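Course assignment 3, question 2. Fill in each field.
Student: A.L.
Task: Predict the tertiary structure for the chain below.
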Amino acid sequence: MPLNAVRYDHGVLPPSFCPHCGQEVVDGTGTINPCEHTLFIATDDGWEFASDQFKKSLQISGYEMVSFWDRNPQQLIEKSLINDGFYFYGGLGGTFAYIGFSCLSTE
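Answer field:
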């Protein structure tokens, strides 16, 4: 079952605070600070963060994992086998941001 998605339309960026612990995972300057619930943080331009739990859920290894960071975030998110999480996505100027969270700790 794919992760549940919450889309933000009309030029609105997704929330940057974890809905579970309240930690700001992306601040106003773009600094990444994942919490224990963060599965991934990405944009259409590439990946900023991916937890081990998220990478394992994709069931890829070897060469595929080497090229992981070059892949389209939306395609990989849809491959994830995590069933206890969700992600927000939305964008400005045609570029989307994706921030995923697990209901359980990813650590």
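Instructor remarks: Residues 73-79 form the longest helix (7 residues). The radius of gyration is 13 Å.
Grade: pending
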